[in-house]
Design brief:
It contains 6 helices and 16 strands. By secondary structure, the protein is of the alpha/beta class. It has a single domain, classed as Metallo-beta-lactamase, Chain A. A 7-stranded mixed β-sheet has the order 7-5-4-3-2-1-16. A hairpin with a 3-residue loop joins strand 2 (39-43) and strand 3. Helix 5 runs parallel beside helix 6 (258-267). The two termini are 20 Å apart.
């Protein structure tokens, strides 16, 4: 397994990519799976499963890593889209007291641009009956240096400006800007780690909110979905933002198209991660 160490010293956190749109190439004794979706396991002061993908891919890849998801402390849902939540059907039962953390808007009845239901499983309440649920629009401190960001303010003028999603409100369809979109922020001795699901709020908005919540300006790593899809102007503004604000490493995946991946890779510190990859951050 590849190891990315940012400094010498004792390891403080490991980040495992359990599910992403591409799978890593390499060892034939461990064939990792991919699907459209995202799931990331964080092994730090607590064990956090961040999103669950669309099927059982996250579980099967966790088994290849040797990760027992029954030992999870917190299940964090970034937002209520099927490709991040439908894996709930395959989350293994545990004797531990596991807390689910999410924005209450994940339960929104929502639809894709093709007019298909694309929200959480319809039996969501049954699937989560054994979990202790924490719904919050405000930032929530999971541990001393681990934060769920809550609802992310849309502050700039180049992200989250339009949407092709809809949701039900008073039995009428209205535009859905995915206000439940959130992320994780982890403060490490060498800077902030931001873990994003889809960044419907905008990856730059997400980082700015993370810095405010965690009370730091140094960003060490940004990993997850960046939601850069076919908008050249947004990509240009995003690259400019990263140049101006600085970050040690970008690891975009999932909802980040090829043009965006190439643009980021050609201009900024970059590493492509896929299902089966992992990072170890030393403190």
């Amino acid at each position: 397994m590849p190891r990315v160490s940012f400094s010498k010293g004792k390891s403080t956190m490991k980040i495992f990519i359990l599910c992403e749109d591409q799978a890593k190439m390499g060892f034939m004794d461990k064939v990792f799976l991919a699907e459209h979706g995202l799931s990331i396991f964080i092994d730090a002061s607590v064990k956090i499963l961040f999103d669950l993908g669309a099927t059982d891919v996250f579980l099967r890849n966790a088994q290849l890593f040797g990760i027992d998801l029954r030992e999870t402390d917190y299940l964090v849902i970034s937002h209520g889209h099927w490709d991040h939540v439908n894996g709930l059907r395959h989350f293994p039962p545990s004797e531990k007291a596991i807390s689910l953390v999410a924005h209450p808007g994940i339960l929104t009845h929502r639809f894709s641009k093709l007019d298909k239901y694309n929200g959480v499983p319809r039996d969501y309440h049954t699937l989560t009956a054994g979990l202790s649920t924490i719904f919050t629009k405000e930032p929530f401190q999971i541990m001393e240096d681990v934060f769920f960001l809550g609802e992310i303010p849309r502050m700039n003028d180049f992200e989250s400006q339009q949407t092709y999603f809809t949701r039900l409100e008073n039995n009428h369809r209205v535009p859905d800007y995915i206000l439940d979109d959130s992320a994780l922020a982890v403060n490490t001795p060498e800077g902030l780690v931001v873990i994003s699901g889809c960044a419907h709020a905008g990856i730059c908005n997400t980082i700015e909110h993370a810095k405010k919540v965690a009370k730091t300006d140094r960003v060490r790593l940004v990993v997850g979905g960046f939601h850069l899809l076919g908008d050249a102007s947004q990509l240009e503004h995003t690259i400019r933002y990263f140049h101006e604000h600085g970050v040690e490493l970008l690891c975009p995946m999932h909802c980040t198209d090829l043009a965006a991946l190439c643009g980021l890779a050609n201009n900024l510190p970059f590493k492509k991660l896929c299902s089966g990859d992992w990072l170890e951050l030393a403190g």
